[in-house]
């Protein structure tokens, strides 16, 4: 198969792009939640205030008592007129009782916490919070400025997407300039001269979404007036900041000397505790390991090596189950008929010895099948759906459970660490990966059944490119009965699908008069901020 290794990589990327998934931590809990979407609509009025309406779509697995929203008010005169409703129904009442379907306000310094009590279990729930931010615009001699962070992911909550829509008193004309604040992948755009739209997907820990907007001085009346031109004020502020920074650096240097000593002592104590636990065990220390170290799932190999699961492991697990006889790929088809790539679930095979993640993956694939047959074209289409993401996350959780069921961890030096036995396995798998990377035409590997066993692990270990040429040189590779030849059609199919996906993505891009990426900043020097989480 031509370009098989290169194209397989695109298959994994295709799934990742469709799902918009950040790398998923391997250790999940049975009680968890994420936010599928946040929409924030902010309207600046001619008095320099800003009316804000926030909509949160929370997805709960397990039982929760509600959510909280921390609104940072620095850079303003605080907030007022707070209202809350749930699932777009009637407003819930403010109360200190902490009863169900009430909310509580707590002020602390420059922050206001909105705590919403709403019992939730295994469901999606929509929370709406509206409020007014007072005196949020700064007025200079030559322009007015809104410099505000609308949200900061302080609690490291999984957030699929967040959008902010900002309306000014007189539209987004040529007199308005703006920049988005946050990671570079975010987009700030002028939407038909009506509002500024900020967009960000897969929001990471402590990432922000905000904007610095300049517009005509006459558009607002505000008490936050600086009697200088904007550039003049910024230059003076920079000089003062430099003086302050010198004094701060001296203090920090002295402090770091003291703190560093404490950190070193704690770190050294942990290292000694780990070394004591491992000192009597004889670990593998070779550079290469020339066979599969153990018959475990490719997903668990990834857990052993770096604690992170990705879509490559999902794909590798399908091939692994095929090797075990639970899945059978259909006979070789014409290269032009990409949409015919499919496999069948095999009935009558004993599943009792399978791990939880394997049983769940077969259950999931059966749900996606039609009479036991799964088309990859259908699988690709379903990958963009919320239900697919939910199933994927559940599969990841089952892999986590497998790791603990196999007693892979011991609590040591303040956290769960690999036991000596599994630390030894980790070293073997790293050596096996090096072996595949450094591979020559070894006679012992010139058999298709050997490559068929290795292939799923090569995918999870991200060394498929290193072995693809060896596989294709193996005698019998092009025979019709060779299942790996059929795997190859998945790679060709993925290339075709990737092109189609990119075309559709481009066509669906919003029609705006101007757009730009975010600055890459973290919100320093901005007003606002604060995040949300469940409890």
TrEMBL record:
Q: Which residues form the DUF2207 domain?
A: 35-212
Q: Which residues fall in a compositionally biased region of kind Gly residues? A: 520-535
Keywords of the record, alphabetical order, are: Membrane, Signal, Transmembrane, Transmembrane helix
Residue span, Predicted membrane protein YciQ-like C-terminal domain: 287-403
One Pfam family, please name it.
DUF2207
For region Disordered, the annotated ranges are 506-535
Question: Which InterPro entries does UniProt cross-reference here?
Answer: DUF2207 (IPR018702), YciQ-like_C (IPR048389)
According to the record, the signal peptide region is 1-26
Q: Where are the transmembrane segments?
A: 246-266
Q: What is this protein called?
A: DUF2207 domain-containing protein
| Species | Clostridium paridis
């Amino acid at each position: 198969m031509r370009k098989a290794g290169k194209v397989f990589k695109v298959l994994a990327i295709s799934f990742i792009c469709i799902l918009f998934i950040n790398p998923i931590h391997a250790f999940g809990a049975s009680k968890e939640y994420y936010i599928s979407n946040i929409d924030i609509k902010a309207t600046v009025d001619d008095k320099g205030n800003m009316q804000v309406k926030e909509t949160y779509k929370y997805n709960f697995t397990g039982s929760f008592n509600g959510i909280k929203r921390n609104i940072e008010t620095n850079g303003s005169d605080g907030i007022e007129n707070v209202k809350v409703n749930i699932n777009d129904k009637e407003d819930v009442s403010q109360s200190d009782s902490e009863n169900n379907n009430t909310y509580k306000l707590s002020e602390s310094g420059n922050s206001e916490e909105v705590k919403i009590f709403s019992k939730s279990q295994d469901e999606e729930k929509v929370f709406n919070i509206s409020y007014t931010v007072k005196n949020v615009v700064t007025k200079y001699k030559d322009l007015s400025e809104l410099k505000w962070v609308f949200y900061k992911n302080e609690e490291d909550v999984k957030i699929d997407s967040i959008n902010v829509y900002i309306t000014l008193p007189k539209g987004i004309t040529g007199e308005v300039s703006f920049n988005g604040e946050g990671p570079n992948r975010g987009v700030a755009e002028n939407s038909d001269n009506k509002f500024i739209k900020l967009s960000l997907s897969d929001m990471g820990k402590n990432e922000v979404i905000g904007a610095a907007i300049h517009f005509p001085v006459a558009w607002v009346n505000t008490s936050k007036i600086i009697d200088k031109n904007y550039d003049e004020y910024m230059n003076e502020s920079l000089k003062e900041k430099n003086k302050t920074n010198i004094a701060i650096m001296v203090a920090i240097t002295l402090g770091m000397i003291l703190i560093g000593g404490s950190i070193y002592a704690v770190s050294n104590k942990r290292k000694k505790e780990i070394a004591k636990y491992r000192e009597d065990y004889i670990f593998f220390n070779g550079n290469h390991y020339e066979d599969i170290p153990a018959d475990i799932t490719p997903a668990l190999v990834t857990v052993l090596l770096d604690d992170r699961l990705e879509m490559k492991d999902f794909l590798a697990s399908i091939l692994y189950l095929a090797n075990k006889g639970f899945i059978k790929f259909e006979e070789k088809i014409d290269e032009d008929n990409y949409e015919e790539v499919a496999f069948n679930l095999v009935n009558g095979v004993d599943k009792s010895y399978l791990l939880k993640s394997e049983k769940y993956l077969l259950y999931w694939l059966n749900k996606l099948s039609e009479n036991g047959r799964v088309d990859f074209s259908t699988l690709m289409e379903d990958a963009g759906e919320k239900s697919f993401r939910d199933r994927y996350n559940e599969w990841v959780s089952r892999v986590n459970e497998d790791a603990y069921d196999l007693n892979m961890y011991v609590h040591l030096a303040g956290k769960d660490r690999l036991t000596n036995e599994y630390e030894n396995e980790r070293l073997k798998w790293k050596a096996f990966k090096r072996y595949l990377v450094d591979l020559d035409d070894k006679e012992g590997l010139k058999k298709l059944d050997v490559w068929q066993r290795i292939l799923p692990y090569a995918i999870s270990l991200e060394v498929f490119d290193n072995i693809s040429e060896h596989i294709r040189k193996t005698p019998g590779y092009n025979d019709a009965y060779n299942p790996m030849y059929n795997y190859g059609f998945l790679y060709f199919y993925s290339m075709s699908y990737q092109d189609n996906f990119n075309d559709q993505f481009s066509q669906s891009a919003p029609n705006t008069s101007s757009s730009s990426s975010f600055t890459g900043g973290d919100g320093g020097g901005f007003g606002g901020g604060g995040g949300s989480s469940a409890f």
